[in-house]
Amino acid sequence: MNNKLPKELIDRLTEIYTKEELEIIQKWYECDNRKTSFRVNTLKATDREILEVLKNNNLETKKVDFLKHGYILENATEKDLWELDIYKLWKIYMQSISSQIPVDLLDIRDFDKILDITAAPGWKTSQASAFLKNTWEIVAVDNNQIRIDKLNFTLIKQWCRNVAVIKSDAKLIWNKNEDFKWFFDHIIADLPCSAEWKININREKSYWFWSKWNIKKNYYIQSDILKSVLPLLKNNWTLIYSTCTLAPEENEEIVHMLLSNYPELQIQDIKIDYEYSKKWLAGFGKHVYRKDVSKAIRILPSIESEWFFVAKFKKIKKD
Fold this sequence. Notes:
globular, nine-stranded mixed beta sheet, Alpha-Beta Plaits, alpha/beta, four-stranded antiparallel beta sheet, Rossmann fold
């Protein structure tokens, strides 16, 4: 592993991953030309329409088998799409294949009600809106006005008309709304994290922020957010939790905490046939995690995917 990175980070990677996996990660850290991926915006177009346009422009794509509308460009980059109407009209949306996984796993149906917390810039919000075909309602929450402006821009451009955007601290959403009448079928919790997917060895500013303190801080932020929103989830419905970091404290440890403190939550199996998927960690450092944490998955960084961790829960009513 390249010694430009902080030694503590290299030590953690070595503890978590095998030699073969570290070689994949090394390529990710050094790569400046990762493959471009996108999602078909089904509020404006069909997959067939998009594929026909790309074929007519000699642009080759690969369908991502485990995603409903996700594709990878094989012989081009985003720049090669700029002059196409499908790009200008937002009929396709540049979204990494890893970040498409959480919403795809929700089995969204017409008229489901969804809460998306820390929602900006709207990748998953707009994806969920398309799955709902603009029926019923999504409540998208973020606490930063600049991020909310980006979220609203994304929603307008993609024709997402069933989203109520609220400026609020997700950690306080339940306490500030004791008479909350919104109860949700699904909660999307793609939470603040140390964002280790951004690291590139060739750009020091991409990893100067990294520290164990930052990881610990994000653990507590995530915990507080989840404790606040869980009362808003209906019985027998789903919470999807995800991050774009490798840190076990922000992934397996959060899942362990939820399962240990909320007996009404049952973690669900995630089955994705993907060469860059990896099973959970049984433990890290002095921590040993519950066996049912094994139902969560990690996505390795690669030329076509970014770091990702995903866990899916169902809230079961207890007698």
